[in-house]
Design brief:
The chain is about 50% helix and about 0% strand. With about 110 residues, it is mostly helical. The chain folds into two domains: about 50 residues, no CATH class; about 45 residues, no CATH class.
């Protein structure tokens, strides 16, 4: 039998999981007020949940780009980390969503 010890009822809820994540993230050193406000308000937005999840993953730098996969040792650290779309620059979240020449055309 499984228990969710985070909540008093020992039953898993999205709200109790969110509270756990929020408390862990906010307790990290270096989080300023504006970052905390963004994190708190992001989940209350009327935006579709998939877009919110992508935003949260990008803020936490958990998008599986070549650079992140190399850091997590999923890819060989010596592997080519260039952007698969344009070939220039390391494939990072920032590059893919802001600087990639191919994506900017879309």
């Amino acid at each position: 039998m499984w228990w969710w010890r985070v909540a008093d009822s020992e039953v898993f809820t999205v709200k109790s999981n969110y509270g756990l994540i929020e408390n862990q993230w906010v307790s990290v050193d270096g989080v300023n007020e504006s970052e905390e406000r963004v994190f708190t308000n992001m989940w209350r937005s009327p935006t579709p949940s998939k877009a919110i999840a992508l935003s949260w993953a990008s803020l936490m730098d958990h998008i599986p780009t070549k650079t992140n996969l190399a850091i997590r040792q999923v890819l060989d650290s010596l592997a080519d980390k260039n952007c698969v779309l344009c070939g220039s620059g390391d494939e990072t979240f920032t590059h893919l969503f802001l600087h990639c020449k191919v994506v900017s055309l879309v």
